[in-house]
Amino acid sequence: MHATLPALQIRGLAKAYGGHVAVDGLDLEVPAGQIYALLGPNGAGKTTTLRMVAGLARPDAGAITLFGVDVLAEPIAAKQMLAWLPDEPLLYDKLTPSEYLAFIAGLWRLPADMAQLRAEHLLTRLGLWDRRDVRCEGFSRGMKQKVALAGALIHEPRLLILDEPLTGLDAAAARLVKDMLLERVAAGGTVILTTHILEVAERMAQRIGIIRAGRLVAEGSMAELAAGRDAGTTLEELFLELAA
Amino acid sequence: MAATAQTAPAVSPLVPALLPPGSLAWLVWHDVRVKARSRQGRFGRLLALVLLALLPIGAGIGFAWRVQSAPMLPAAAIGVVGAVLVGLLLVMMSSAYAHVLRLGRDRGELELLLSAPLPAARVVAARIAGVQAIVALPFLLLTTPFFLASAALGHWRWLAGPLVVIAVALVATALALLIATMLDRLLGPGRAETVAQVVGVALAASVFALGQAPNFAPRWFAAQMAALETPPPAPYDWPARALFGDPAPMLGMLAVALAAAAIATEIAARRLEAAPPAPTSAERRARAARFGGSPARVLYGKELTLLGRDPELITQIGQQMVFVVPVVALLFADGNITPQRMASAGVFLGGALASSLAWLMLCAEDAPDLIASAPVTRAQALRAKLAAVLTPPAVLVTALALVVAIRAPLAALLMLPMALLAALATSAMQLWTRAPMKRSAFRNRYRSSLLMAVGEFIVLGALAAATRLILAGSWWALAALALPAVLLSGVWLFRVKPAD
Q1: I need a surface site. Which of A235, B26, B84, B137 has the fewest CB within 10 A?
Q2: In angstroms, how far is CA B274 from the centroid of its own chain?
Q3: Considering only CB atoms, which residues of chain B are within 8 Å of chain A?
């Protein structure tokens, strides 16, 4: 039954800060088992939307459901299925990567033995195994980003939301992260990401949504978005046309 | 071009004219400007600073007036002044040590300067000059009015006083750097940092408590003062003589100070070269913390682990607790240390410690979005964090209660719930009045709200008084309990609501 439910469904979502309307009656649906790229210029409302989905901000109006669970009515059940990874890594400098992952596992009520196995796998995969017992305070931005990604993946969320996930990563690390996201989707997970690197969205995402001034202005697969335009139209050209 | 939201004050054209860019003076000016801008605040804070500045001016003029008939070189005061200067040196060393630690850690901006085409020695010297200025400035502000007023009243040689204060600051900074480097080598950077921070707080607390000795140990204090009436032999009397403008000791002090400044710059340059780009404690393999059980237990464990691993924060908490000493000392003003008074002191101390911890754990979450996105309700997270806040005060108060219980079990029994009440009250005040912020802002927490600090002291004072009144069987205890209740209700009405 779950397979038929969309991973995320947003209806009439609105949010204003003071007099500024950040999200303006947004409707959005993300099918399960896909990578969905949410694009838009700075200040378009992408991060605000995703923060509301993650339960970090309360909408002024509208409804959000994750796999059929109402985020506003059942926040704990919704959060149990979700991981949120912002562009600034959410870390505690005084904890080591191992401890950080154990902490996250505890918050998401993952059994300790399973948490340890997954932590070993993730830290090894992300090249952090040798540094697992070193406090994060001396880590580079990229390393912190990798620890935070491991934290987001350790409880194997059904929906993974990433805000600019490749910021601060070198080419090899960026490639590794992209591979891991694809594997997550192959395993049945859903990924929503925002990025300013349009090439990443074009290559990775099955569906792309373009948001402007808090509203969805275009949505579909790359082929659907390019339909009716010249052959070889790039996402960059589409984006500049639609989001400007 | 679009206007920026925050416009920095324009740089006066005089600055580049007087201070050539890249010169030592220009670098020091840059350092001071950056520090000053980070402390810019509301008009109220400025007003508070002005009012605070009036205090030493008034006290300085008053004291200068009182001693106007003293000789230019008062032999009877040499011993006391010498002891005060030793205390000043220790306090300054404690302050300098904290800045020295930051010198090696906050490297981002320093590396920008070091990457500029300037002599590295000049950049380091400017940074050390900044530390020396920060160490000396508060004491200069406190004492200069006295020296100026004394000079105006005929003691013109006492104008040497501010120079001696600066000299002590230079020596203190050099000693702090030397100790930091030696401890690094002996214990390793991580342990050295912890040990030095704890010793620094203990040092500052001892000096501060000594200053309060006339209140709680008047007889002992009088005996010490009598002993100090005999001046120490040369050269131990030189610093005090220098303060009163005796030429030879003064020249000696200045020579020592300049040598200390040169040594400090040399040590700092080596230290900065040797320091890794990251905090050295990061490289230390930590004993792994275990996070298990319910999410609430995980959060509780996280808070205590983070606190235990941050010696700088522990130092800052200790430093803030030091300022509670004079208030607590008032309870023992007549020299009588009774269990009932100790119970009151325990209530006050427990509440004050909880206040610091509440600020850190309830208001300064380093990863707020992570906690908010976790499958834990806000109330669950708050309860877990509150439990962590209450744990260290509980240990402190229980230890005190055990001491009190030997002589007065009832006082000990009452002390525990009253301390809990005080801890909950200060925690609630922190929670209701603070917007979320970073832990790094902890140092300035009282500076950001003087009103809050006063309110907290009233609540703690009232609860400490209520403890004593209950033990005395006085109905006035009800009034003492009502005061914090009213104050807390007021704070609750104007509480900061959690942002969406």
Answers
A1: B137
A2: 28
A3: 276-279, 281-286, 288-295, 297-299, 302, 305-306, 309-310, 366-367, 369-377, 500
d(CA A140, CA B363): 27
Test B291 with A99 for CB contact under 8 angstroms: yes
The DSSP element (H or E) to which B354 belongs, if any, is helix B339-358
Nearest CA in chain A to B307: A94
- Residue pair B279/A137 in contact (Cβ under 8 Å)? The answer is yes
Give the bridge partners for A209, in sequence order. Answer: A38, A219
Which of the residue ranges B14-28, B93-107, B259-273, B371-385 would you say has the lowest mean pLDDT? B14-28
3-state SS, residue B35: helix
Q: What is the ipTM of this complex?
A: 0.72
Tell me, yes or no, if A175 comes closer than 8 A to chain B by beta carbon: no
Q: Is A243 exposed, middle or buried (0-12, 13-18, 19+ CB in 10 A)?
A: middle
Picking from B333, B331, B330, B284, the residue whose alpha carbon sits closest to that of residue B309 is: B284
- Other CB atoms closer than 10 Å to residue A74's CB: what's the count? 13
Nearest-CB residue to B288 (from A76, A82, A96): A96
- Two tokens, residue B234: 């040369």
> What DSSP string runs through B211-233?
HTHHHH-HHHHHHHHHHTTSPPP
Question: Which residue in chain B has the smallest CA separation from A160?
Answer: B373
Residue from the list B290, B309, B373 with its beta carbon closest to the beta carbon of A54: B373
Cα B491 to chain centroid, rounded: 26
d(CA B310, CA B101): 13
Q: How many CB atoms lie within 10 A of CB B60?
A: 19
A44: Cβ contacts below 8 Å, ≥ 6 apart: A211, A212, A213, A214, A243
As a whole number of angstroms, the distance between CA B148 and CA B61 comes to 8
What 3-state DSSP class applies to A134? strand
Q: pLDDT value at position B10? A: 42
CA distances from A10 to A52, A133, A206 (A): 10, 41, 19
B359–chain A nearest CA distance, Å: 17
In tens, the pLDDT along A170-202 reads 888 889 999 999 999 999 999 999 988 888 888
Two tokens, residue A236: 């960059």
Residue in A with minimal Cα distance to B371: A107
Answer yes or no: are the C-beta atoms of A146 and A122 closer than 8 Å: no
Bridge-partner residues for A20, per DSSP?
A17
B312-357 pLDDT per residue, tens? 788 778 877 877 777 777 777 666 778 888 899 999 999 999 999 9
Distance between CA atoms of B466 and B121, rounded to whole angstroms? 59
